[in-house]
Design a protein that fits this description.
about 300 residues; Rossmann fold; 9 helices; about 45% helix; disordered C terminus; EC 2.8.1.-; 4 iron, 4 sulfur cluster binding; 4Fe-4S; tRNA_Cyd_32_2_STrfase; nucleotide-binding
């Protein structure tokens, strides 16, 4: 095969991957009404693969959607040592993307509160969220787009189950507690492995997320490893777990605030259709009186 044909096939495969991912983003946006006509979407770009791919998908959707909305990229420079401040501005300007770089020294705050060697991710995330929420109001953004994907959502579900005793995940669309911001996750229908391939195809200037020197969240690392093992043995299980979050039956769980277990009552007033395999013969009994058949309800 000629070199030109090989390059052509590689480019075609990359375009198919990008098209599939953009399709998943479009479906998630429609299913959850993530973006409405006239919205100003603030795409939070950290410099990682997920946020780069999300930004590209949102800009594509902006070009082809029947509604009109704007997209502005925002990066929060948290003043981590060694953070390459030039990379994102250069990328945005080369692509003609509207952007803001905002500065907030959350790194020093985190380091002053978290003992050396402990993971800083949780506090760092809370501080970052507060800064982004307030900036969204400042620029009039009506939606904040974050780069969390299907794997993140499934991992978060199990983290909350294992360590917080809560059946709670990471929703595709969220109203903030103070009701002043709406967070959307356009990559909700996308697997991390597919995002990684698209990011590699595009050769984005990825910025590592470990510049702070923090240890990786060990709980999340264990959950991630556990789910990866399940997925290798049972391909498609991550998708099935995610789809279960879309198909909840409160009466089959145990949360008394979601379903009224107290006032359940039977109703045998109507003639019922027969149950499948309903008849059973009594072979022995200590109950007085003879019956020929017990109907199992």
């Amino acid at each position: 095969m000629m070199m030109g044909e090989q390059v052509s096939q590689i480019n075609k495969a990359a375009e198919l991957r990008r098209k599939k991912l953009r399709g998943n983003v479009g479906k998630a946006v429609v299913d959850y009404a993530m973006i409405e006509d006239g919205d100003k979407v603030m795409a939070c770009v950290s410099g990682g693969k997920d946020s780069f791919v999300m930004l590209d998908a949102l800009l594509h959707l902006q070009r082809v959607a029947q509604i009109k909305f704007s997209v502005v990229a925002v990066n929060l420079d948290q003043k981590q040592p060694g953070f390459p401040e030039h990379i994102l501005p250069e990328f945005f300007e080369a692509k003609g993307i509207d952007y803001y770089i905002i500065d907030k020294d959350t790194y020093s705050v985190v380091k002053s509160k978290i003992p050396e060697g402990k993971t800083t991710c949780s506090l760092c995330s809370r501080l970052r969220r507060g800064t982004l929420y307030s900036f969204a109001e400042e620029i009039g953004a009506t939606k904040l787009a974050l780069g969390h994907h299907m794997d993140d959502m499934v991992e978060t579900l199990f983290l909350n189950m294992f360590f917080q005793a809560q059946l709670k995940g990471m929703p595709p669309k969220l109203l903030s507690d103070d009701k002043r911001n709406i967070v959307i996750r356009p990559l909700a229908y996308c697997r991390e492995k597919d995002i990684a391939k698209v990011a590699a195809d595009s050769a984005y200037p990825i910025i590592p997320c470990n510049l702070c020197g923090s240890q990786e969240n060990l709980q999340r690392k264990k959950i991630k490893s556990m789910i990866a093992e399940w997925d290798s043995v049972n391909p498609g299980c991550v998708e099935n777990i995610f789809h279960s979050l879309q198909n909840v039956s409160p009466s089959q769980l145990a949360d008394r605030s979601l379903f009224d277990f107290i006032d359940l009552s039977i109703d045998r007033s109507d003639v019922r259709p027969p149950y499948e395999f309903e008849a059973a013969e009594v072979s022995s009994s200590s109950v007085e009186g003879r019956i020929d058949v017990v109907r199992i309800l």
